[in-house]
Design brief:
Blueprint (H helix, E strand, L loop, with lengths): L1 E7 L4 H12 L4 E7 L5 E6 L4 H12 L2 E8 L3 H6 L30
Antiparallel strand pairs: 1-3, 1-4, 2-3
Helix pairs in contact: 1-2
Length: about 110
């Protein structure tokens, strides 16, 4: 998981909600939060999040966004929950066979 901190120029509550909507709609984002003394830092946590695309879309709508930091975040809960083995149950294929009796005639013989 990646944790990104972006500095976004947000003057009012409308700008903050717009930034949160843009970040939440980005592919791979799990969590979004606002932090900082002036509430101008956007924290985005997720897997496979493209930081360049996210900052470009924020710049398009809010005109100012810069990347402050990107770091890998280890998820300890996830590592404990997932077992280290993989169980695979095979799928059985049962072929369908159509059997016809050559001696049985179902055709109309009167013509």
């Amino acid at each position: 998981m990646k944790k990104m901190v972006l500095k976004v120029q947000m003057h009012c509550q409308k700008c903050r909600t717009k930034a949160l909507k843009i970040a939440a709609a980005t592919h791979g984002v799990n969590e979004v939060a606002i932090q900082g003394a002036e509430k101008d830092e956007l924290v985005v946590i997720g897997e496979e999040v493209d930081s360049v695309k996210l900052t470009c879309s924020l710049r398009k709508k809010l005109h100012n966004a810069t990347i402050l930091s990107i770091e890998e975040k280890k998820d300890e809960k996830k590592a404990e929950q997932n077992p280290s083995y993989f169980v695979h149950y095979p799928q059985h294929f049962i072929p369908e066979v159509l059997v016809q009796d050559p001696y049985q005639t179902t055709l109309c013989l009167i013509m």
